Amino acid sequence: MSDAARVVIERFMRGLVRRNPEEPEFHQAVRGVAESITPYILDNQGYRHAQIAERLTEPDRIIIFRVSWEDDRGNVRANRAWRVQFNNSIGPYKGGLRFHPDCNLSVLKFLAFEQVFKNSLTGLPLGGAKGGANFNPKGKSESEVMRFCHSLMVEMYRHIGDDIDVPAGDVGVGQREISFMFGQYKRLANRFEGVLTGKGISHGGSLVHTESAGYGVVYFTQNMLERVGREIEGMTCSVSGSGNVALYAIEKLTQLGGKAVTVSDSTGFIHDPDGIDADKLEWLKELKGARRGRIEEYAQRYDRATFHSGKRPWAVSVDIALPCATHNEIADEDARSLVANDVLAIAEGSNMSCAPRAVHRLIDARTLYGPGKAANAGGVIASGLEQSQNAQRMPWTREEVDTRLRSIMRTIHAKCVAHGEQPDGSVNYVVGANLAAFVKVADAMVAYGAV
Ligand code: NDP
User: What pTM did the predictor assign?
Assistant: First the structure.
């Protein structure tokens, strides 16, 4: 990158930080994109004149509201909720809802900003948004979760719609919560429409939606490996998290002949050198799904598995790493361990899994590194396909959805290669994903004029 571009990025970031103080995750996400697209913008008078970088980093609107609800003992409780409608230049807003006690505006702005680019990469007509609440679903009864979801929708329903904004799930929000919210939306709006995705199959949900983000991460990894003449079969893999993305990434990896040797949750990680086979995975789904238990129980059940309290799995020597828990879960020292152990590929199941220095280290080491906006787009692809089925009022078969998912992931990979191929033949997937995504959104914004 030229010195002139570096100066422009630093000046731009100073302005962004001043306008958005105390939002470190949002700053990090914007810087990651700015480093890729600024040289391109500087070469393009049209984008500069349209102030694209400034407009693209300012959300269209943010809705903040109170959610009051009653717990099982009759106490009145209150939480804060947000919907960040970031950019709808290429389609109605689309992005997940997160329920987590650490949920805040900075995290949701970073996620919504990333979503704009991720959704653009899919080639589907989807704008970018994200939302959530600082509600902790852990330890809550099903009735409490239902009352919370219903109360949240009393405010949110007036801001969403199948042509306006279509939320989905994320951390802490699965099919159960989406169905509670959809039921309340349907009652308030008196409309049965594809206003939320990730619904149950009986009421408009799509087959393969639950599996899509995890399967998509593995498809993307497969594409990166194929390009360098390798395949997943026979490879060992570390996976973090044990939620929706992690468990279905393990499932697809195992189906393709790979061996997942780690899994984790917020208390620590499990190392199972024998690998997490289909039977162990079914047990894990039950443990982390219906029972909402702790990952430590895995080591009590399976002899050769060990539990590492409070630790992450990145020091385990593997061929592939799939971070699928949360943002910044791979710090620089973790990236150093992975590179020292000759990891071949890393694909982000979680959004912004790698801290900035870790990203630079992986790219410098020529690791096959797929950033979340490309690698975990499977979730939003399945959501887009659910919207299509809802609009057509015609459900598709499992094979049809999975074939489309696999094909769109392959197209995303091809776009990353087209925009990120380096003179030495390697691919910088960060630059590739950012540039490919940016061009589509920016061109739409330029076409609209100053709106
Ligand atoms: P889930 O809520 O299903 O699972 C999250 C998992 O990560 C749980 O195992 C949780 O542990 C663990 N975890 C959460 N926070 C931490 C932490 N600070 N340290 C260690 N482990 C942690 O979420 P999803 O699987 O849906 O999402 C995981 C990631 O993937 C998120 O970054 C999300 O944004 C991203 N993503 C999700 C998509 C989707 O469709 N669901 C699509 C694309 C990306 P515990 O059980 O102890 O809470």
Answer: 0.97
